[in-house]
Design brief:
Elements: E1 2-4, E2 12-13, E3 18-19, E4 24-31, E5 36-37, E6 42-52, E7 57-58, E8 63-65, E9 77-79, E10 84-85, E11 90-92, E12 95-96, E13 101-102, E14 107-108, E15 113-114, E16 119-120, E17 125-126, E18 131-132, E19 136-139, E20 144-148, H1 151-172
Parallel strand pairs: 1-4, 2-4, 3-5, 4-6, 5-7, 6-8, 6-9, 7-10, 8-11, 9-12, 10-13, 11-14, 12-15, 13-16, 14-17, 15-18, 16-19
Antiparallel strand pairs: 19-20
């Protein structure tokens, strides 16, 4: 893993978190207890902050950034507890509330919100300013509401969180 300062800001990582080799964490980034950042992820908190709660996993090859600059609005990236972010996702200047889900290869753009237990399907693109409600599944490019999640869907997502917490422990202490 590589941790980098940006200006006066340095990453803050809970002792129980797993940061895989090859991950790059830059600037104003906070990572909570039992969270995992997998191989070849980039988390760049340069012009705004990135905050990641407890037991959240950001899977291999994903990029998490913020938005800001002279020409546009500034948006930190706020990711809650028990969030699943699939491989090769792009998460940019948005909020993902507790137990949110971002599928493999999905894109979440500036100013978006994924509410608790909301889900963005694999390969979907959530365009700027959109909001996925609690227990909603959105899919497509651009993403649109597909259906409400069932109790089985919610249970499966929560089991995925527990799986990644355990898997991260195995990778951290082989």
């Amino acid at each position: 893993m590589s941790l980098y300062r940006f200006g006066a800001a340095s990453p803050t990582i809970a002792a129980s978190a797993f940061i895989a080799p090859g991950a790059r964490i830059i600037g104003n980034v906070t990572i909570g207890a039992d969270s995992s950042i997998w191989y070849n992820c980039v988390l760049r908190g340069d012009v705004e902050a990135i905050s990641i709660g407890a037991r959240t996993n950001i899977q291999d090859g994903s990029v998490v950034h913020v938005s800001g600059g002279a020409a546009g609005a500034r948006h930190p990236t706020l990711i809650g507890d028990d969030v699943l972010i699939g491989h090769l996702a792009m998460v940019h200047g948005c909020t993902i509330e507790n137990r949110g889900f971002v599928g493999l290869g999905a894109i979440v753009m500036d100013g978006c919100v994924i509410e608790s237990d909301g889900m963005l399907a694999a390969g979907a693109m959530l365009t700027p300013g959109k909001r996925i409600g609690a227990r909603e599944l959105w899919a497509g490019r651009p993403a649109k509401l597909l259906r409400l999640l069932s109790e089985a869907d919610i249970a499966r997502n929560r089991a995925g969180v527990a799986h990644y917490v355990e898997l991260a422990r195995e990778h951290k202490h082989p």
